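ok so heres the complex, two chains, lmk if somethin looks off
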Amino acid sequence: MKSYQYIIDYFENAPTIIQLVWVTIFIFFVAVLILTIQLKFLRSRLRKNEKTVAEYRKEYESDLITYLYAGNEEEEISAEQQIIIDKLRSCTSDDFKRRIIVSTLLRLRNDISGEMAEAIQKLYFQTRLISYALPRLKSKKWYIVAKGIKELKQFQVKEVHDEIVIHVNHHKREVRNESHLYLVSLFNFEGLKFLDDLQTSLSEWDQIQLLEVLQKFDDQEIPDINPWLKSENDSVVAFALKLAKIYNQFEVKDALIGLLSHHQKKIRVDAIHVLSHLHVVEAKDILKNNFDQLSEDEQIEFFKLLENLCETSDEPFLLAHTTHQNFEIKLSALKIIKTLAVEKFKSLKYFSTDADYVKIYEFLEYK
Amino acid sequence: MNTSTVQIILTIIHLLFFIYAFLAIASYVILAIISAIETKQYMKKNSFVNYKEILSSTISPSISIIAPAYNESLNIIENVRSLLSSHYVNYDVIIVNDGSKDDSLEKLIAAYDLVKVNFLINQQIHTKPIRAGVFKSTNPAFEKLTVVDKENGGKADALNMGLNISNNQYVACIDVDCLLLENALQKMVKPFLEVTEEKIIATGGVIRIANSCVIKNGKLLDVNFPKKWIEKAQILEYLRAFLLGRMAWSRLNGLLVISGAFGLFDKKIAIEVGGYDTNTVGEDMEIIVRMRRHMEEINQKYRVAYIPDPLCWTEAPDNYKTFISQRNRWTRGTIETLRKHRKIGFNPKYRSLGMLSYPYWLFFERLAPVIEVIGIVYFAILIALNEVRWDYAIAFIVLAYFFTVLFSVVAIFSEELTYHQYKKKGTGFKLLQISMLEPFVLHPFILYAAIRGNIDYYFNKKKKWGEMTRKGMAKSETN
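and the predicted structre for the whole thing:
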């Protein structure tokens, strides 16, 4: 009691700064204590959650499998199926359980195909899970909207097209991206129409995702990509170039040639790359005549094009560039000469004393 | 000098110490808050990402993993196997055997059916010459592997050789003994592909400590909490640094360092700036500062990104000798880099790099140990002169201690809320225990190593890298 009184007296008589420091220490101490207790609960909760999720998942998986095999041809929904629908429906009002049901449905649907997959889809409606996903599209929180779109995409709910298409230019990248993926996943190449109105940039990551989705479809009827190659949105042009390459769109060669004078270097380089891939011979002379005005990246890409499209008449041009300052161009030029005319290549052994030239020559000589 | 003048000088010194400590604490708190906000955002955004799609895409960008190896014979086979087990589709692995004196090369040749090949190298960065040659595997299962055997030139030189050899757009520079998770590359490459308004020049990842974890065939099977205090304390230190520090610097676009253990770079820019500096022991920090400086000078918008996911696991020193040697090197690396790029410091031309990142590193990383030692010496003098106001001293020491503990506990909390890697029962208590003890079992050694680093930098210029004896992660045991 005496020492307690001593501490009180000490604190009351201490300078203000010391009082302040001890108050801060006390606050820190209490904070550490609270966090320690919370940590204990948090860790226990996380462990418990993992266990509970696994249990529920097992239970729902078993229910879903029973549902899939309980159908008969006489009734649309058998009595056994109805019991499972009712059970799952009663669980959907609980956020935690609903999340597990949705993820279990998706997991199962990804593992199966055909009628079974359709049955899972149907169950999504029968359990009224859709009624939880739809209001999300109107949420003010971007991640809820994005989650809603993602779920509707995964369960292929085509009916909400009009509500989703309004998000293609959403200010949050994730929402935009989910809406683009929704459109392409459900409407295939038709879904790409959103590119006509796209005002925001489509990142490389977004483009790869879209192309991956498109490549899953058997029906490969490609729409006219000319308007996208002429788009004012550079990212749309970049994406259209990828489409042109992957789907061998030779018919858009004029638009591709037009892109050789695009204001963005990356587009010009990509255009040369696609022209090379499509073996558009007309591009060669245009680029050759304009070679000195090209940036180094374009020049390198042009030499790659020449590796595909070179002719004997290109020999003087190639010869002139065997001593180019760029290593890759030098390598390309010598490589093409070797392919075109081996004797000519042999005669070039001592053409230059430049260290890189000698190294490249020796490399090609023994290749 | 009369008594009042001395008194004024002493008061100014006290005030400067106080201001410094206050600013350091304030900066930690601010960084922690920004980190928390940023991590939350990251977790939210990341929940929409489907990494599987980029994984299988043939148009995903190409990456070379460059791993320098010096006398790594003990684990080289398992380590290379781990690097070859990435799920990313478009990548290759370049092992640069940096003049090893052991049988690393022979082991690699035998294990991966390697044969010497005629390989054209575009020597864009000067390096030590090739020794035995460039090797590729005759086994199609290892077609992604290239082994280069060169004369010893140090880690930076070996990485530069990798940059010369790589034909890919991005390079992941890593320590050969690091264990990369299978989805590490796609997570690291994502920022390069998703940012459209500015150029991503490099991405850094979190480094986690693998001591005591169970690893088999290059795969992390079980995460364990080690038994040694030094290892436990380093785990806590890494959690604090990566979860409460770097995430904030990433948000502020102020990252000055990407761990040498694992970083992904835009190869073109790395080569443009001349690759790694072979004259520093802090080449990982130096190249980032040089790349950033380059981007500022050409006036191009850029960013150094950071991924908080635990993607790379590495062996940390398990004894104080190795630990001190490592931290000594880190200190010298920091001094060398800040000195080399002193033009940046407080230079508004370099915007946040010059006005925020550089000053922070100078005051709170470079000078912190020096100021701390000055403080300790000054305190000792005051004790000797019987001039200590013990009520003040005790109060401030207790305050500093509780702040450190609180900060560590927040880091543990943040880890639990995000990645929850240490799941086993009882580990939470161990983490809390080490957060109480870390100021005694680790901090004094960090301080000692930093001071040794300063002394070595100024008085022992010949000192380069210290040796780290590898125990080998493959042999890590279960707790």
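quick notes: Residues 325 and 331 of chain B are 10 Å apart (CA to CA). thats all i got rn
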